[in-house]
């Protein structure tokens, strides 16, 4: 795991080895989650694309103190037995339930810093600014953004902020643009309660992680992911957890998102779960319709059958298949254009 200071907050990230493809895929997680959930997808794509995943400010290991603890845990784990290593390799699609995220054995730790700046807020645009600073610090200039749920909104705002740097966007379980007052008020109230009712000792109660394997998915996911969801939920920074929820769901913010999509010149695609009860396909289609690729019949939307709100975990192979197909349509042409420029 690597750590870099962005606007005064340590940001934990992982980057796979360079490949011959001059594109970096940047993966952005959703609310109360972490970079860990992208690792099954990244493991399949890393042979062909450099992949960058990171924890949003206030989540996962991107919190003061959390990054250092996770790095120490990673260092201690490196002295484990060969049998433990072999066991971990055989289940490398599952995260560590104790370390806060997946840590590749080949990752090198480093810390780089940029000049301190005022701490931003928690809107998708604020998080897009964080991402812009992260990419500038890491000197990454040619990217496709892949964002899940709230991460999809952040990806869209980041593409709007960085039209030269961001070559395309894929939103997974992410849509919106329609503000329904009563529904949003209920969602915001429930979300705030979810943040408040999360004492650390929940991690030690039996069966709580099992309950998390049923939440917002079409079918129960592996229990290791339940433990990961529990850990991410309990340890998220309270200010970030509440701030990201409230700042991204105001009426003004919801209505800004279609405007952002409509002015993007980059290709934008959407992957939806047909059984997603958090971001129903109708809302994904609505937001996608504001982009030129929609062309009245949803050509930039893919719906995954038998899939809830965690497509990258529930339907990993299908998500990878569609990402590869999307990238195949555009990356070659974009690479030629980059060389020409």
Mind explaining what this structure looks like?
- GO terms for molecular function: hydrolase activity.
- It comes from Thermoleptolyngbya oregonensis NK1-22.
- Helix 1 packs across helix 13 (316-340) and helix 6 packs antiparallel against helix 9.
- Helices cover 44% and strands 14% of the residues.
- A 9-stranded mixed sheet has the order 5-1-2-4-3-6-7-8-9, with helices on both faces.
- It is globular, with a radius of gyration of 19 Å.
- The protein contains 13 helices and 9 strands.
- Strand 1 (2-6) and strand 2 (9-15) form a beta hairpin.
- The protein has 341 residues and is of the alpha/beta class.
- It has helices spanning 39-45, 66-77, 82-90, 124-138, 150-161, 181-196, 208-212, 223-235, 238-248, 251-263, 281-288, 311-314, 316-340, and strands at 2-6, 9-15, 24-28, 50-54, 111-112, 143-148, 166-172, 268-273, 301-304.
Which properties best describe this structure?
44% helix, alpha/beta, 341 residues
Percent helix: 40-55%
Measure the end-to-end span: 34 Å
**How many alpha or pi helices?**
13
Number of beta-strand segments: 9
Shape: globular
State which percent range the strand residues make up: 5-15%
- What is the N-to-C order of secondary-structure elements (H for helix, E for strand)? EEEHEHHEHEHEHHHHHEHEHH
Query: In order across it, which strands form the biggest sheet?
Result: 5-1-2-4-3-6-7-8-9
Structural class: alpha/beta
List the uncertain runs.
74-116
| Sheet with the most strands, sense and barrel status | 9 strands, mixed
Radius of gyration: 19 Å
Mean pLDDT: 86
């Amino acid at each position: 795991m690597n750590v870099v200071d962005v606007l005064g907050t340590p940001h934990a990230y992982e980057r796979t080895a360079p490949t011959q493809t001059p594109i970096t895929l940047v993966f952005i997680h959703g609310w109360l989650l972490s970079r860990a959930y992208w690792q099954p997808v990244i493991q399949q794509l890393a042979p062909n694309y450099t992949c960058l995943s990171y924890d949003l400010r206030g989540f996962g290991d991107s919190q003061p103190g959390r990054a250092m603890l996770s790095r120490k845990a990673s260092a201690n784990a490196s002295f484990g037995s060969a049998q433990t290593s072999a066991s971990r390799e055989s289940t490398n699609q599952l995260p560590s339930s104790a370390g806060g995220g997946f840590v590749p054995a080949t990752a090198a730790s480093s810390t780089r810093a940029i000049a301190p700046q005022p701490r931003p807020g928690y809107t998708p645009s604020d998080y897009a600014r964080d991402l812009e600073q992260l990419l500038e610090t890491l000197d990454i200039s040619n990217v496709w953004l892949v964002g899940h749920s709230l991460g999809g909104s952040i990806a869209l705002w980041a593409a709007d902020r960085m039209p030269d740097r961001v070559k395309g966007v894929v939103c997974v379980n992410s849509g919106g643009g329609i503000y329904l007052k009563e529904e949003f008020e209920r969602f915001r109230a429930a979300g705030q309660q979810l943040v408040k009712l999360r004492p650390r000792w929940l991690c030690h109660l039996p069966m709580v992680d099992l309950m998390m394997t049923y939440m917002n998915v079409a079918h129960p996911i592996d229990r290791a992911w339940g433990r990961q969801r529990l850990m991410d939920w309990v340890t998220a920074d309270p200010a970030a957890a509440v701030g990201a929820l409230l700042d991204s769901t105001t009426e003004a913010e919801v209505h800004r998102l279609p405007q952002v999509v409509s002015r993007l010149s980059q290709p934008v695609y959407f992957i939806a779960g047909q059984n997603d009860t958090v971001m129903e396909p109708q809302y994904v289609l609505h937001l996608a319709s504001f982009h030129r690729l929609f062309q009245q019949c949803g050509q930039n939307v893919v719906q995954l059958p038998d899939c809830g709100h965690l497509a990258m975990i529930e339907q990993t192979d299908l998500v990878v298949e569609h990402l590869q197909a999307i990238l195949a349509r555009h990356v070659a042409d974009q690479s030629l254009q980059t060389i020409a420029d």
